[in-house]
């Protein structure tokens, strides 16, 4: 039976045998890959999108941002955003471009951070389109950006902020409760109640050792759990600060500087805390630390404000001035940023983007990669197809702004700074659930990571667990 908007149903009947309303879940992204999170919950009377993320990384994936979602976008009733990372909220302005005009539910800090992230994303989309047209790369005579600032301005008024743990109706027979996920400030695991059934989305799940955020609580009883698997086949080291100290100390000893590509939101804050601790303990030389990313500096302000008000997902009793540090210098302008390209004395530069796919960090890499005295320290997940992944995988050269740059600097990969739970932590979180779900769908991981986690859930918890397939639609019972 077709629904009111012609989106064909999977079952012949819209009602199940017992008369309950049919509910389906469709995996429109982050299935078989880590980016592009988009999950559609659909009943006879409503359609709600959980996360609206951009695909990132390989060109074939990025092209998918232009594909049709296979549903009439204007008929979407609402969207729920788990957190402010681009691969979870970055598609929102593209939805608006296609006529979406419904409410978008998220926490207040997610709204504050998403505004920063989306404005930056629009700028990057516009720059990419301009670059493609100047180089004749695009097949279109006049390449258009996926969205522009105007689409972002039309997206922001749709935001509806929701308190942690408050239950809010988002559409007919669909309500959401946003439970803290401990991943970045404002991040949540959305718990959706839909026509009497409950689906828990892990969102990106944090770790118990985040220095600012409370660990995620156990999941509530649910009919289905949709769980991320970014690091589903790995176990993080417990304390990465020794590796960071070693990398910095040896680099400075040979007269070099350290570049750290970092996600503008959250990773910059964690690095500043770790560097502050190392400096105070005398474990690294007292060289200046620069934060060279306007987006990261704006994000840092959101964290400082949250600390000032001891917001809900923060650990209790954190000092208000935790993220103020005398050693940190901010590079706001392009001139201040360029002055860092050839630093006269060793320094540490934290700059975005985290996977070296764009942003100011590219200029630093271009200048600093050829010099063997320097180091590039990678502290976040590097998706397949990104420059960051090439560097971690030992590339002898990388292409930046159309030029091949030799990689002579030391590349150090420190996985322990991840704000994603590892395989053991994901299993512990699932295993702490109030009751076993009927099924677990594993998403948001490259195929090996997702398969490993699904197998472990089956073997160690004895639950039915499957890796969600891209575009797959399943019934929620
Ligand atoms: Zn995230």
Write the layout of secondary structure elements.
Layout: E1 24-27, E2 39-42, E3 47-50, H1 59-63, E4 78-80, H2 86-89, H3 92-97, E5 104-106, H4 108-135, H5 149-155, E6 159-161, E7 167-171, E8 174-180, E9 188-194, E10 197-201, E11 224-228, H6 241-253, E12 258-261, H7 267-280, E13 289-292, H8 294-308, E14 328-330, H9 334-338, E15 348-351, H10 361-368, E16 375-378, H11 387-392, E17 397-400, E18 403-406, E19 410-413, H12 423-431, E20 439-443, H13 447-461, E21 465-467, E22 473-475
Parallel strand pairs: 3-4, 4-5, 5-6, 10-11, 11-20, 12-15, 12-16, 13-14, 13-15, 16-19, 20-21
Antiparallel strand pairs: 1-2, 1-22, 2-3, 7-8, 8-9, 9-10, 17-18
Helix pairs in contact: 4-5, 4-8, 12-13
Bound molecules: zinc ion (ZN).
Zinc ion (ZN) is lined by residues 83, 85, 183, 204.
Can you offer a commentary on this structure?
There is one protein chain. This protein is of the alpha/beta class. It has 2 domains: 24-234 and 423-475, Ribonuclease Z/Hydroxyacylglutathione hydrolase-like (Metallo-beta-lactamase, Chain A, 4-Layer Sandwich), CATH 3.60.15.10; 241-417, Rossmann fold, CATH 3.40.50.10890. The chain is 28% helix and 19% strand. The chain has helices at residues 59-63, 86-89, 92-97, 108-135, 149-155, 241-253, 267-280, 294-308, 334-338, 361-368, 387-392, 423-431, 447-461, and strands at 24-27, 39-42, 47-50, 78-80, 104-106, 159-161, 167-171, 174-180, 188-194, 197-201, 224-228, 258-261, 289-292, 328-330, 348-351, 375-378, 397-400, 403-406, 410-413, 439-443, 465-467, 473-475. Residues 83, 85, 183, 204 line the site of zinc ion.
């Amino acid at each position: 039976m077709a629904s009111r908007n012609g989106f064909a149903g999977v079952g012949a009947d819209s009602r199940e045998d017992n008369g309950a309303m049919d509910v389906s879940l469709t995996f429109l992204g982050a299935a078989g890959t880590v980016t592009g999170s988009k999950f559609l919950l659909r009943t006879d009377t409503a359609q709600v999108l959980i996360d609206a993320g951009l695909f990132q990384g390989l060109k074939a994936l990025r092209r998918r941002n232009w594909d049709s979602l296979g549903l009439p976008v204007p008929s979407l009733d609402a969207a729920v955003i788990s957190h402010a990372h681009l691969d979870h909220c970055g598609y929102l302005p593209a939805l608006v471009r296609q006529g979406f005009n419904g409410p978008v539910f998220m926490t207040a800090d997610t709204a504050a951070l998403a505004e920063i992230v989306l404005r930056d994303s629009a700028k990057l989309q516009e720059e990419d389109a301009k670059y493609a047209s100047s180089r004749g790369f695009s097949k279109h005579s006049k390449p258009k950006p996926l969205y522009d600032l105007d689409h972002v301005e039309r997206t922001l008024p749709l935001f509806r902020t929701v308190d942690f743990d408050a239950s809010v109706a988002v559409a007919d027979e669909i309500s959401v409760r946003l439970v803290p996920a401990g991943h970045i400030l404002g991040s949540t695991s959305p718990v959706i109640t839909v026509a009497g059934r409950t689906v828990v989305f892990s969102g990106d799940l944090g770790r118990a050792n985040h220095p600012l955020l409370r660990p995620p609580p156990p999941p509530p009883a649910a009919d289905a759990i949709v769980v991320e698997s970014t690091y589903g086949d790995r176990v993080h080291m417990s304390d990465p600060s020794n590796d960071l100290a070693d990398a910095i100390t040896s680099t400075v000893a040979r007269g070099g500087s350290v570049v750290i590509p970092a996600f503008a939101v959250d990773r910059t804050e964690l690095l500043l805390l770790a560097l502050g601790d190392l400096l105070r303990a005398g474990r690294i030389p007292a060289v200046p630390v620069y934060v060279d990313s306007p987006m990261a500096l704006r994000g840092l302000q959101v964290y400082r404000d949250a600390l000032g008000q001891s917001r809900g997902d923060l650990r209790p009793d954190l000092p208000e001035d935790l993220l103020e540090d005398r050693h940190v210098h901010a590079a706001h302008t392009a001139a201040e940023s360029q002055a860092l390209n050839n630093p006269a004395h060793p320094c540490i530069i934290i700059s975005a983007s985290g996977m070296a796919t764009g942003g100011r960090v590219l200029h630093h890499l271009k200048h600093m990669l050829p010099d063997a005295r320097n180091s590039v320290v990678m502290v976040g997940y590097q998706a397949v197809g990104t420059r960051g992944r090439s560097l971690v995988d030992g590339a002898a050269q990388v292409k930046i702004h159309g030029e091949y740059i030799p990689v002579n600097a030391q590349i150090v990969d420190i996985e322990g700074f991840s704000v994603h739970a590892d395989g053991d932590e994901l299993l512990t979180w699932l295993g702490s659930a109030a009751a076993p779900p009927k099924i677990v769908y594993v998403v948001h991981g490259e195929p090996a990571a997702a398969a490993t986690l699904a197998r472990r859930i089956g073997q160690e918890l004895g639950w039915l667990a499957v890796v969600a397939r891209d575009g797959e639609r399943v019934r929620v019972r």
